[in-house]
Amino acid sequence: MPLSYKDIFQNDLDFNRIAIEVFTFQYRNNLAYQKFCNLLHRNPKNTFELKDIPFLPISFFKEYQIKTNNLSKDDIIFTSSGTTGLQTSKHYVHDIQWYIHSYLKGFEYFYNNPADYTFLALLPSYLERDGSSLIFMMEDLIQKGQPKSGFYLNNHQELIDTLYQLEANNQKTILVGVTYALLDLIEKQNFQLKNTLIMETGGMKGKRKELIRKELHEILCQGFGVQQIHSEYGMTELLSQAYSKGDGIFECPPWMKIMIRDTEDALSYLPSGKTGGINVIDLANINSCSFIATQDLGKKYPNNSFEVLGRFDHSDIRGCNLMVI
Known about the structure:
Elements: H1 5-8, H2 15-29, H3 31-39, E1 56-57, H4 60-63, E2 76-79, E3 90-93, H5 96-111, E4 118-122, H6 124-127, H7 133-144, E5 150-152, H8 156-168, E6 173-177, H9 179-188, E7 196-200, H10 213-224, E8 230-233, E9 242-244, E10 249-251, E11 256-261, E12 276-282, E13 291-300, E14 306-311
Parallel strand pairs: 1-13, 4-5, 4-6, 6-7, 7-8
Antiparallel strand pairs: 2-3, 8-9, 9-10, 10-14, 11-12, 12-13, 13-14
Helix pairs in contact: 2-3, 9-10
């Protein structure tokens, strides 16, 4: 492998140069990605800029083994949640340290030392299944956090009591919750939190009616007594996360970048402020694929922040599936 952790996880990263190196490595070592690139007539000999790099449709993680080495008994396989009967994504992680470095360095980049926080994780839909990358991350952050850190399933009263105790002690706290569970919590208790960040991971998981972000965040702000709702943008197929500290505007760590593709021409890109499909470059995905065309719609701003506006209609059945392997 040509690159190490220290090459990727740095704040002054020469992003374009490293991205081309990663593309070259993955083209040569990831069979599925190589075949996809060949169909688009792209290879290391004619790919010199980010706009030239082919972005693999995220649906390929459901259909193929997207990895740069042979399967190993030591591989960790992260899986996506999904409706019963639908195929789920699988992300084969050959070296788990890439993921650990990514989420720890990313958290430190936005929020500083995790040891300063108490982490409360209200993630019932994730806890109730195996293979969640979010649960893996939260388990590690909980271990590194303050002593009252922990997971909560349906024990809302215990969580309420813990929040009040932490507030009374002026303890910096992050409550990470799946959206519907946070709404369930504030229906049982209204708060006025001064030392707690509320971070929603998105998704009603079929438990509640979907809400537009502005309406959702207004409800959560009122229920928790906070000024802003933080958000995490991550997924099974990525080893890095973008974070929003309010208003649904996300920022990436230095080794992650967003590009907005034209919905009418997937190989063309849109300028700042225009809505299109979200392409993600995640250099932490060194052993799978770092260049992913998601099924999310969004727009990018001149300072490289971005907003997620929704998903493509029928996203589970749409895609540029060009290959048979």
